[in-house]
Predict the structure.
Amino acid sequence: MTHATEIVVLLLRGGHVLFLLLLSTLLLGCGSVSLRDMIYEDDDSTTIHTTNPVFHKYLDKLPIRTKTPVIFKTKKGNTAAVCAIRTDGYREIQVDPRYWSKYGDSDRLELLAHEIGHCDYDLPHNNNKMGNGCPLSVMHDTVFGDPCFSDYFDFYMTEFR
Ligand SMILES: [Zn+2]
């Protein structure tokens, strides 16, 4: 986090928005997972058309309708999950098991809600923030976790209707 510390010094001197942006980028790089997560796949890529039962208890906690199968598939880089879209229109949510195993229940719910937002609701990313710093939307492009996700769960779910 030494880079972040340097940027804070610049921020105190300059007080410019640009430094704030740099700071947030560095902070995200220190722990959060970036979601570059709407991908397009060839029609001949392997697909499993049934949701892995592991995900059922989480999907049941989300007041969101989804028809998209959710499967485990190891992804490249620091991608926790994707909404994969094939040229023939078939969509599936692919969750990297390495991230899933590290996540607690709240982060797992957030990840699934986010990918359902892409795959079932065609929602784009939304990185706007509330006055208190919490994201305005579960479609924020990183997994932001608690306390924001749990504190504003009901509010975030209003985006899906
Ligand atoms: Zn996303």
